[in-house]
Design a protein that fits this description.
The strands form 2 sheets. The protein has a 5-stranded mixed beta sheet, with helices on both faces. Helix content is 44%, strand content 17%. The longest helix has 27 residues. With 380 residues, the protein is an alpha/beta fold. It is globular, with a radius of gyration of 21 Å. Bound molecules: 5'-O-[(R)-(carboxyoxy)(hydroxy)phosphoryl]adenosine (KG4) and zinc ion (ZN). 5'-O-[(R)-(carboxyoxy)(hydroxy)phosphoryl]adenosine binds next to helix 6 and helix 7.
């Protein structure tokens, strides 16, 4: 039986994209946040190359785990559990993390928790601002996702209200940076240029904000095309492209829509807290505009510090710790990486038997189904 505690000591492993993250938390307290990034290896391709990322995770895994344990000053044998991102993300990259987590958990005799990357991006704020209010409204904006999520219980009940119908917000930043020849990843560099520019210089379109458009969904591909066309026209006319103004005006269009829809979702659902997470939450303009609009609407804004907003292991450990504290079922040894794990599945519970710790009574339908099938095969 796993020990249940208010302040579980949990190690979390994150490998869904290009960051090998290993974090260690005790309840809501961050003890270590070790990250090895392969971002430089992808820069010349202008985007993350899955095979390169997987190989880099493999090489970085053991040293990053050792560094985290050393930074935290704890011994692996004292852990209450090991959590790992089970999905969504790049299949090969996730597989490295899941395999490592299983190996460590099995060898150490610790419960294993396969958790959701998106729920982790929300839960990480507990390390910064303490327990999340229930429900929490979350705006998740990263290179792979842009979603509005209502979370009555981060460990078991996360409801998607809307998401992007084309590009993710971070993806739009990355693509516009490429058009402007600013390198990869685009978010931080556009953020920097925008500080010198005029956000009202060019009026770019605000996607899906018409009266008949879906209220909580996002679209950034029209904006991306509009910005690219505007730049092309300048270049064709032999004029200089005012990079800072384009960056500021583009950023303003993204941030305007994100904050407007997030505040609207809070009001519509009577939620007085907004959490913003994911890599784009590191954006200075997004933070400033969200702060002002939330204040006007009487909503308390919670945004973790930038290092906790981008992918890291601490966020996985934070959600794992919450799973342990709430006595959620641990995962089975046959936990697999699921590149399209739905956001509604905060974790992947085991099927109640045959797994390491005998205290799980999960309700994973896929597992149950699998179990039924194998029984049939056995007896027929
Ligand atoms: O959460 P994250 O580290 O990885 C994913 O799960 O995707 O997010 C990475 C994304 C990239 O697209 C990057 O350009 C964007 O977050 N990003 C930013 C900023 N810092 C990172 N976007 C806008 N402003 C920033 N300051
Ligand atoms: Zn992420």
């Amino acid at each position: 039986m796993a020990r249940r505690t208010d302040e579980p000591l949990v190690l979390g492993i994150e490998t869904s994209c290009d960051e090998t993250g290993v974090g260690i938390v005790r309840g809501h307290t961050l003890l270590a946040d070790a990250v090895a990034s392969s971002v430089d290896e992808h820069a010349r391709f202008g985007g993350v190359v899955p095979e390169v990322a997987s190989r880099a995770h493999l090489e970085a895994m053991v040293p990053t785990i050792q560094r985290a344990l050393k930074d935290a000053g704890v011994s692996a044998k004292d852990l209450d559990g090991i959590a790992v991102t089970a999905g969504p993300g790049l299949a090969g990259a996730l597989l490295v993390g899941v395999s490592a987590a299983k190996a460590y958990a099995y060898a150490l005799g610790k419960p294993l928790y396969g958790v959701n990357h998106l729920a982790s991006h929300i839960c990480v704020d507990q390390l910064e601002h303490g327990a999340l209010p229930e429900p929490t409204m979350a705006l998740l904006v990263s290179g792979g996702h842009s979603s509005l999520l209502l979370a009555p219980d981060i460990t078991a009940d996360v409801r998607p209200l809307g998401s992007t119908i084309d590009d993710a917000a971070g993806e739009a930043f990355d693509k516009i940076a490429r058009v402007l020849n600013l390198g990869f990843p685009g978010g931080p560099v556009i953020d920097r240029y925008a500080r010198e520019g005029d956000p009202d210089a060019i009026r770019f379109p605000r996607g899906l904000t018409g009266p008949r458009d879906p209220i909580y969904d996002f679209s950034f591909s029209g904006l991306k095309t509009a910005v690219a066309r505007w730049i092309e026209a300048k270049r064709a006319a032999g004029e200089n492209v005012p990079v800072a103004d384009v960056a500021a005006s583009f950023q303003e269009a993204v941030v305007d829509v994100l904050t407007r829809k997030a505040v609207r979702a809070c009001k519509d659902h009577g939620v007085d807290h907004l959490m913003i997470g994911g890599g784009v939450a590191a954006n200075t303009r997004l933070r400033a505009m969200a702060e002002r609009r939330c204040e006007d609407a009487g909503i308390t804004l919670r945004v973790p510090r930038p290092k906790l907003c981008t992918d890291n292991g601490a966020m996985v450990a934070a959600l794992g710790a919450e799973m342990v504290a709430r006595g959620r079922a641990s995962s089975s040894w046959d936990l697999s990486a699921d590149s399209s794990l739905p956001v509604t599945e905060s974790h992947v519970p085991g099927h109640g038997d045959g797994h390491g710790h005998g205290h799980g009574h999960g309700h994973g339908h896929d597992h149950d189904h699998f179990h039924e099938l194998s029984k049939d095969n056995l007896y027929s």
